[in-house]
Design a protein that fits this description.
The chain is an alpha/beta fold. It is built from 17 helices and 27 strands. The strands form six sheets. A seven-stranded parallel beta sheet has the order 8-9-7-10-11-6-12, sandwiched between helices. Strands 13-23-22-14-21-20 form a six-stranded parallel beta sheet, with helices on both faces. It has a five-stranded antiparallel beta sheet with strand order 2-1-4-3-5. The structure holds adenosine-5'-diphosphate and zinc ion (ZN) (2 copies). The site of one zinc ion has 8 residues, from loops.
Length: 687
């Protein structure tokens, strides 16, 4: 075979296409997938050889490849073609996508030093539990030997999905293949990791964002050099080139954190399905509340639907009661009238904080007397304590984002988006006379009130302020497991995947948050969060756990279907609405966002974009079916000092959507300096 003359190299730079290089004058000639060092402008950079060209079509003056980069393993197909697909589908520069397939440190560590704090602790092996009837049935229907198939495992909370994953992985290893488990970052708790290491011991590797670059690099090589057989990780673990991969398992497949919201805006679930398809192995998506996209595909028969409707060991799903906070308030007022006449009979509940209903209070009391644990969840998004002027209504906003500041520790005002913070001043800076006071509630307030109501109880709070690092989360989980905590207070962040034997009571303090977010997935997300939080209760007790959902909207479908444990009813109803409004899964979306530090310039450019879209559409009849909404100011108009306008494109066909967006993204000459255009394919975060 004659050696090719020109090499196509995906260089580590924001370029749409690979560049051409000449054969290195000394050393071996590279093959497809080899990492190379190449000159780019005045510097040297890394790149991956994608292929060869017979002609130098542009007649450019070409440079030579300097050498093969032996620090990095050769990327093989189909993994390499999958990386090319990612670049093409998400419209992200090919060389930058390639970089993601390598560990943070270039030098591989030769000797692993023994460390005090290893990435994976050692646990004694656990014995295998007898499978439940449903677990057995599901396992009979998944064959790890088969070619590509997407299995959607819909199992209620506590139905034992993890045990199904463990058995599948065990089979995969026995076949001499490897397994990848992706979970949302936050559920990568010691609880989950412990379960896997107890079963597979030293066969596990772990990748998540709290590891140091050195630890990541070590874990990465242990898989690539086949010292380990199972990789557990957050979404980016998908980019580890695992030799002989035989199965991917995605737990909590509905989680929006599988979508990356910057750079390469990929969805790890969707990307994993494509990898499984290209490499021909099965993939399992597990959830108690599948995304409507996955559910619809299962209904159409494109995914294989498997269901587990019962909790393990005859444990029942919790009893869920809805408490109408509006009625609760009316009742309190009546009590007030009564107590006016009989102040000596003032009931204890009279002194309850406004957010605590009598039922919730009494159940909490009961659980504590029975030496059981309770958890109170507050889905805090947009519901933290604000600082408001009582005379003019002025609300302190972040100077960099169009977002109200949130009160912390009663004295700091913090922006939850960019971390800006300032001291709370008591005097209003707008009317100069009014007094600034806190309004609304947050987990801090819950904790304060609870400590007053139950002075003898041991209370812990878990939210992004309290729990900033992994160690703190691990310590908290340990304390709850060891029953050193009686009442756990937290945001939904901690509700994910936790499994506490003593937890029998769950209170969702105010379920309404999120119902009215300007996002077509608001209802779906609320349903998922409510079901997840409720699912923490009574996972191990023989008497069913109790869940109280406090709300101002007791008839909201996200609440009523949660109470009935009726996922499919919810999905059916929600899909009808999606169909009517033509939203996914009935169409594909692309979000085009313009952003810059100048409000007017951003808006003008967004309008210009629209006219360009219209022009492209009239010139190409293939795009006739495309529709768009906007341009409109983003729900958060200003974020980190940038004004944002967006345009949402809807297309019945993913292919058309891509070619359409491609026309725009790689021809940006018309965009004024300082304005940035972002394209998000299959967007999740549209705020
Ligand atoms: P899910 O992920 O479906 O919510 P888990 O996998 O966390 O449920 O299982 C819930 C609990 O049931 C866990 O404590 C797990 O150890 C236990 N479990 C799972 N399968 C079995 C089984 N076959 N027999 C007994 N206990 C089981
Ligand atoms: Zn004021
Ligand atoms: Zn901010």
């Amino acid at each position: 075979m004659k050696t090719p003359s020109f090499y196509k190299v995906a260089v580590n730079a924001p370029l749409a296409e690979p560049l051409l290089y000449l054969l290195p004058s000394k050393g071996d000639s590279p093959k497809r997938g080899d990492s190379v060092i190449v000159p780019l402008g005045s510097r040297n950079t890394t790149g991956v050889v994608l292929g060869f060209a017979d002609t130098n079509a542009g007649n450019y003056l070409l440079k030579e490849i300097i050498q093969i980069n032996k620090e990095r393993p050769r990327l093989k197909d189909p993994f390499l073609s999958w990386l090319e697909w990612l670049s093409e589908y998400y419209l992200h520069p090919i060389g930058l996508v390639m970089e993601m397939a390598f560990p943070p440190k270039s030098h591989r560590k030769r000797k692993i030093k023994s460390k005090k704090n290893p990435v994976l602790k050692e646990y004694s092996k656990s014995s295998l539990p007898d499978l439940t009837f449903e677990q057995n049935q599901v396992l009979e229907q998944i064959s790890v030997q088969e070619q590509f198939k997407v299995h959607l495992l819909h199992g209620v909370t506590g139905s034992g999905k993890s045990e199904v994953y463990l058995r599948l992985l065990d089979e995969t290893i026995k076949q001499g293949k490897k397994g990848l488990v992706l979970v949302p970052e936050i559920s990568l708790t010691p609880q989950l990791v412990e379960r896997f290491t107890r079963r597979f011991g030293s066969a596990c590797a772990l990748l998540h964002s709290h590891l140091t670059p050195m630890e990541k690099t070590e874990q990465w090589w242990s898989i690539v050099e086949e010292k380990k057989q199972i990789l557990i990780g957050a979404r980016s673990a998908l980019f580890c080139p695992i030799p002989n991969l035989g199965i991917i398992i995605i737990d909590e497949e509905h989680e929006s954190s599988f979508k990356q919201d910057s750079q390469l805006r990929y969805h790890a679930r969707d990307a994993a399905i494509m990898l499984a398809k290209m490499a021909q192995f099965p993939i399992v998506l597990g959830s108690a509340t599948p995304s409507l996209e996955s559910w619809a595909r299962a209904q159409e028969g494109r995914y294989h639907l498997l269901q587990m409707k019962e909790r393990v060991a005859n444990r029942s799903l919790p009893n869920i009661s809805v408490i109408d906070l509006r009625a609760e308030r009316r009742k309190n007022r009546e009590d007030e009238v009564e107590s006016h006449f009989a102040p000596q009979r003032l009931p204890l509940e009279k002194s309850l904080p406004f957010w605590m209903s009598k039922q919730l209070y009494h159940s909490l009391l009961k659980a504590l007397s029975a030496k059981e644990q309770g958890a109170l969840f507050l889905n805090r998004r947009g519901l933290a304590q604000l600082a408001l002027c009582r005379s003019c209504g002025f609300k302190k906003e972040c100077p960099h984002c169009a977002i109200s500041l949130t009160l912390h520790h009663g004295k700091h005002l913090v922006c939850h988006y960019c971390d800006y913070n300032e001291q709370l001043s008591t005097q209003c800076s707008s009317c100069l006379s009014g007094e600034i006071q806190p309004l609304g509630m947050g987990t801090e307030l819950l904790e304060k009130d609870i400590k007053q109501l139950f002075p003898q109880a041991r209370v812990a709070r878990a939210d992004r302020d309290e729990i900033t690092g992994r160690e703190e989360l691990e310590e908290l989980i340990r304390k709850v497991e060891q029953r050193e905590i009686d009442i756990l207070i937290g945001t939904q962040m901690i509700a994910k995947g936790l499994d506490f034997p003593g937890l029998t009571l769950v209170g969702l303090v105010m379920a309404d948050v999120g119902f009215s977010l300007p996002d077509f997935r608001a209802g779906e997300r609320s349903f998922q969060i409510l079901t997840q939080m409720a699912g923490r209760a009574g996972r191990h007790s023989l008497h069913p756990g109790a869940v109280f959902i406090q709300t101002y909207n007791p008839n909201h479908p996200s609440i009523t279907f949660t109470c009935d444990h009726d996922y499919s009813g919810f999905a059916e109803k929600e899909l009808e609405i999606r169909k009517e409004l033509n939203y996914p899964p009935f169409c594909r979306l692309a979000l085009l966002r313009m952003q810059s530090s100048q409000l007017q310039q951003t808006e003008m450019t967004a309008k210009k974009l629209k006219s360009i879209l219209e022009l492209i559409q009239t010139q190409h009849p293939t795009f006739a079916a495309l529709e768009w909404l906007g341009p409109a100011p983003a729900p958060i108009l200003k974020l980190r000092n940038k004004y944002r306008f967006q345009l949402l494109i809807k297309s019945p066909d993913p292919g058309h959507l891509k070619t359409f967006c491609k026309q725009i993204i790689y021809n940006k000459k018309w965009i004024p300096r300082g304005v940035e255009l972002i394209i998000d394919i299959d967007p999740i975060n549209m705020i």
